[in-house]
Amino acid sequence: GKAEARGSFRFFEPEMDARLQARRVLERDLRDALSREAFEVYYQPIYSLDTDRICGFEALLRWNHPQRGFISPAEFIPIAEELGLIVPLGEWVLRQACEEATRWPDGLKVAVNVSAVQFTSASLVTAVREALRWTGLPGRRLELEITESVLVANPGATTAILHSLKALGVRVAMDDFGTGYSSLSYLRSFPFDKIKIDQSFVRDLCIKDGTDFIVRAVIGLGASLGMTTTAEGVETEAQLAQLRAEGCDEVQGYLFSRPVPVSEVAAVILRWNGA
Ligand code: C2E
Ligand code: CA
Ligand code: CA
Ligand code: CA
């Protein structure tokens, strides 16, 4: 009844308050962090099964919070998106990553994650062009990773933006493939260069019946659409062997290296590719 409903509302109120409070503090800290550039970009190697060498790195954002230590991007990126802070933050990551990549051997590319919110902002193509111009990184060495949610929001505008990016020589990857719902039709209608097979599938490889078949199908689908495939979250030799057998092009995961700070990138390259 009514009294009951009111009672339960009162019961949850303090908890809601606490959560809202925590959230406000995080919002304030996030704005503050952006103005002080308290973020850092980490890099995780991407390994080519064709050449058996590292072929690039994915840039992954880190926030070292003064009280809480490292906060996961999974936690703060949605907030940055809501506050509109993701646009300046995303542009900062892009510049950092492009600049860092100019110091790597020429064949190595850098992959940067782009949020759906950045993608719908008119400034993305300009930001990419500027980042390339300022750093001198050739467009072909930059790859942007986007998730399906971008395509759902505004398919028409997205197609136009993807074509503008490709005109700069930049490659585009569909991230977290298999986690959304309309992946198949999207793959056909948008000019992606690469599919990243979500780590949830890789985790189930060699464990859950049917997963091998799905992964094989995705790799085949990519190949028939002229796209390369990267498997993420590779942690075991068994997963690697399976992916190799299925003809996956690239792999990424803790088996090769965790994401590392900029200071350790050269050592990772040396370890896998030699001098
Ligand atoms: P993602 O793009 O799917 O990135 C892969 C995530 O898997 C990263 O988590 C990476 O550290 C983690 N990972 C890599 N190898 C393994 C493995 O072998 N096992 C396991 N369990 N995990 C592995 P991270 O760095 O915490 O990033 C989480 C998500 O935050 C990313 O998922 C991406 O969606 C988002 N993100 C990170 N950096 C940025 C950024 O600069 N901009 C935007 N818009 N999003 C970002
Ligand atoms: Ca990614
Ligand atoms: Ca992913
Ligand atoms: Ca993910």
Automatic annotation (TrEMBL):
Residues 23-273 form the EAL domain. Coiled coil: none annotated. Keywords: Membrane, Transmembrane, Transmembrane helix. This is EAL domain-containing protein. It comes from Methylobacterium longum. The chain holds residues 681 to 955 of 960 of the full protein.
